[in-house]
Write a structure and sequence with these properties.
Shape: elongated
Radius of gyration: 26 Å
Helix content: 55-70%
Number of strands: 0
Largest sheet: none
Number of helices: 7
Length: 140
């Protein structure tokens, strides 16, 4: 679906004004995002498609597309990952986390011993065995 439509867009690009071209490209990007996971072309094909679109737009108008269109096109490049139903996406080879995000995440996920976790669970639950303390505010 995508390649023939992309070629028709590139062919009519020179006849459009920049606002019309951005509108057409935005509609095209929306159509790309509706593609089912089974019908999605290979990543290399999608990368070439997006590169051809952005390069042809730049050649005609001597400026990049607006950021909203570029964001939608990048979502199209990652569509197989976004539409993947896997719950453990961060454990895959092509995960989104950078090295700094991964290290920060590991710092936040401090492993605790089982009896420490039991203590926190017991303390946070409604247990009348713990003495509850209240502080009275001074009258102002």
């Amino acid at each position: 679906m995508g390649h023939k439509l992309m070629l028709s867009y590139v062919a009519e690009l020179e006849t459009l004004s920049i606002t019309e071209a951005e509108e057409v490209l935005l509609n095209y990007a929306d159509k790309l995002l509706e593609i089912k996971l089974e019908d999605l072309p290979e990543t290399s094909v999608r990368v070439q498609e997006v590169e051809d679109l952005t390069e042809s737009f730049f050649c005609v108008f001597e400026q990049q597309c607006n950021q909203y269109i570029l964001s939608k096109l990048s979502d199209y490049l990652l569509l197989d990952f976004i539409k993947n139903d896997s719950k453990a996406k961060s454990k895959q080879d092509d995960s989104f986390h950078s090295s700094s995000q991964t290290s920060n995440r590991r710092k936040a996920e401090v492993p605790l011993a089982e009896n420490t976790m039991d203590h926190f669970n017991l303390k946070n639950s409604w247990n009348i065995a713990f003495k509850k303390s209240t502080k009275e505010l001074e009258e102002v």
